[in-house]
Amino acid sequence: MYSRYGSPGDRIFDFCNYTFMIFLVIVTLYPFINTLAVSFNDANDSVRGGIYLWPRVFTWENYEYVFRESAVFHSLIISVLRTVIGTVVTVFSCAMVAYTISRPEYVLRKFITIAFILTMYFNGGLIPNFLLIRDLGMMNSFWVYIIPGIIGVFNLIVIRSFIEGLPEGILESARIDGAGEFTTFSRIVLPLSVPVLATVALFTAVYQWNSWFDVFLYNSSNKNLSTLQYELMKILQNSNASMSSNTTGGYTGENPNATQVTPTSIRATMTIVASVPIILVYPFLQKYFVKGMTLGGVKG
């Protein structure tokens, strides 16, 4: 006869399961908490090591150093605009193309699908892409962040697989009522595809937020189009260069009374600054993300 807590085997299993999950949570959260502690710790004190979950010498100086330049705030605005506009345009464009190639009556859908998939395996390379962007006149332009990546093949396949799983009867009913293809797409398909669209939106937003190499290639001469990631990368490079030329162990810049930082403290601070916006957005998309991955990613 078993107790209300189950058999001994069940209790042992529950204990092992809970122990493993707690260990997994600790392993997952510790690197972020440690980075947060280093970012709030005195730079010279961080060099000694031994900081784990809490700053030993609390200070705001690392963040003051990062946000001292007005370029950081302007680049933050550009990054937000890039992320929002790029995500909306990319998700909507991928959804339209995915709906088109998901229709069995479209005779070219297999050819177009293969043409898209080939681009996942073969790429022209960095130099041809640079020459293409230059010839298209998108150098020193905000739209170089949006247009080249407007269609992502992986996102396209995920959305197409999800749309193909929708009940065909719903779409046929809309057509019988006189709805055209765009009306069917915008009023029927899009609302039903919210889970997979939220998943693709999260992928796209993370990519747009973290990108900096395209800024370096195409807009490095235009400070008004610099993004947060690129500015943070430059701050880290400057701190590394100054650290290597300074034998005192820290960097204070030209002003001896300025904030003293080290590459370690700057790296931790930059990681927190760059990660927090995405971390704040993810909880609102989590339920859609899980559902979209399970429904849209298992079909071929």
Automatic annotation (TrEMBL):
Belongs to the binding-protein-dependent transport system permease family. Keywords: Cell membrane, Membrane, Transmembrane, Transmembrane helix, Transport. The chain crosses the membrane at residues 12-33, 72-99, 111-130, 142-163, 184-209, 266-285. CDD domains: TM_PBP2. It is a multi-pass membrane protein. The keyword Cytoplasm does not apply. It comes from Marinicrinis lubricantis. The keyword Metal-binding does not apply. It comes from the Bacteria. Residues 76-285 form the ABC transmembrane type-1 domain. It is found in: Cell membrane. This is Carbohydrate ABC transporter permease.
